[in-house]
Amino acid sequence: MSHGHRHDDGCCGGAAGRVEAAVARMKEKSLRVTAPRLKLLRVLAESAQPLSAEDVHRLAGQGALDLVTAYRSLSAMEEAGVVQRHPMERGRTLYALASGHHHHHVVCRRCGRIERLPGCDTSRVEAAALARGYADLTHVMEFYGVCPDCAAHG
Amino acid sequence: MSHGHRHDDGCCGGAAGRVEAAVARMKEKSLRVTAPRLKLLRVLAESAQPLSAEDVHRLAGQGALDLVTAYRSLSAMEEAGVVQRHPMERGRTLYALASGHHHHHVVCRRCGRIERLPGCDTSRVEAAALARGYADLTHVMEFYGVCPDCAAHG
DNA sequence: ATGTCTGCAAATCCTTTGCATTTTA
DNA sequence: TAAAATGCAAAGGATTTGCAGACAT
Question: How many domains does chain A have?
Answer without folding.
Answer: 1
